[in-house]
Design brief:
heterodimer, A: alpha+beta, 1 helix, elongated, B: alpha+beta, three-stranded antiparallel beta sheet, 2 helices
Chain lengths: 27, 98
């Protein structure tokens, strides 16, 4: 339910968020 | 595109002009990965269509602990396929002729 941020050493930001609803419908 | 078990989608409206675009990646089918996958959710990131390499981003995801090294190719391919589709769509929407 929360987002987390990971910053790679190269400077790129990765933000972790909940998987989109559409994914649940496809399964 | 081939079903790699890893889904990559646009995370913003593509105006067809920006070189950096927001993408979102998540694992739809962990069984298609070689390594053990820890379900961390969706990973949002920006990708520069003009000068970035999908495989490099995949490697950064591995180094950040999202995936194991053995899956770097499948993650890179998933990003590459989506990027190719975005570029293809952009080419199609360019008005033909003058």
């Amino acid at each position: 339910s929360t987002t987390a941020q990971v910053v790679h050493s190269a400077g790129r930001r990765f933000i972790v968020s909940p998987v989109p609803e559409s994914r649940l419908r496809e399964q | 595109a081939e079903d790699t078990g890893v889904r990559v989608e646009l995370n913003e409206e593509d105006d067809g002009k920006k070189s950096s675009i927001a993408l979102k990646l998540w694992v739809e089918d962990p069984k298609k990965l070689k390594g053990k996958y820890k379900d961390t959710g969706a990973i949002e990131f920006t990708f520069n269509l003009a000068n970035e390499d999908p495989e490099v981003v995949a490697q950064e995801m591995v180094e950040s602990g999202f995936f194991l090294d053995c899956d770097v190719k499948v993650v890179g391919k998933s990003i590459r396929d989506r990027v190719a589709l975005i570029k293809w769509r952009r080419e199609r929407t360019v008005s033909p002729g003058n």
